[in-house]
Each structure stands twice: as structure tokens, then as C-alpha cells.
Amino acid sequence: MSYHVRDRVFRSSATTLKRKPFHVCILAVTALGLAAPAAADSETANANGTLTVEISNIQNGKGQIGCSLFAKKDGFPSKSEKASATLFVKQKAGKATCVFKDVKPGKYAVSVMHDADKDGELKTNIVGRPKEWWGVSNNVPPERFGPPKYDAATFAYTGDPKTIKVKLRL
């Protein structure tokens, strides 16, 4: 009788042993299947690229150049605190370059200003016309009574390195 119990336990163990490699294979395949989307996500995260803005027509060597990248029209073009990214660079020989890194693919507009007094804001007169030189992507001029429209200044960004040119105006 004890042999019979042992035989039964043995068979159970043998069945368990026979199934372990099968379970290990299933777990390995499942783990690989779950890891594949994670790898794809990390590739997508690394697909973010560099957007370069080349600024020309800088009138003097004072101050700094401020560049703001907008992913939505809220705040465009003058409220840099509502931009997706803002940076300030120095100018050299009437030109400057702003480089935005890790930019996700999408639709954007860029606003640029010559911040002559380094206060981080575009100075305007009493009716809102700029006193400092400025520009936007696509070199869109101002509206008759207001700033350029966001939709006119937008461009598609695919994630590949891209350079746009902005010419400042007063």
C-alpha cells in the first residue's frame, strides 16, 4: 500500500517535471511578447528629434534672443509661459540659433523676439505694437490689428532633424 502511494506521488512528480519545460516556454514567450511593446515604446521615446531655428535680421548686439515653441494656439505668440518650451540664446554677427531637443512629432509654431533689455518679455507700446524686434515661423506678418495667427505660423514636425528660418521685423 505504501508502494502504491509512492507510485502515485512519483507519477504526480513525473507529470509535474514533464510539464515544467512547457510552462517555462510559455512564460518565456509571454515575457518576450510583453517586452516587445516596451521596446517599441522606448524606440518611440527615442524618436523625438531636434528642431533648429535660425534667426536673422538682428539689428544690434544688445540683450538676448528668446525662442518659444508652441504646440497649441493658447498664448501664441507673446505668452512664452504658455509655450511647450522656451529658451534664450546669445546672438553673434546679427544671427542666432535656437535648438529645441527631444521634440515630439506634431504641429508647432515658433515665436522669436529680440529681448534687448533681457527682461524675458516682448516690450509693446500702449496699443500693443512691439517695440522690440520679433518674428514667427513661416515669417508670417502681423494681422492688420493684431499679432500673426497661430494657424498661419504652424508647420508639421515629423521627428526628424529640421531647421526653420525666422527673419526678425519691427
| Reported CATH architecture of the largest domain | Sandwich
- Report the top-level CATH class of the largest domain: Mainly Beta
Would you give the CATH topology of the largest domain?
A: Immunoglobulin-like
Q: What portion of the residues fall into strands of 2 or more residues?
A: 25-35%
Number of domains: 2
Which descriptor suits the 3D outline? globular
In whole angstroms, the N-to-C terminal distance is: 103 Å
Radius of gyration: 30 Å
The H-and-E topology, N to C, reads as HEEEEEEHEE
State the share of residues found in helices, binned by percent. Answer: 25-40%
**Can you give the mean pLDDT?**
79
- Largest sheet geometry: 5 strands, antiparallel
Number of helices: 2
Structural class call reads: alpha+beta
The total strand number stands at 8
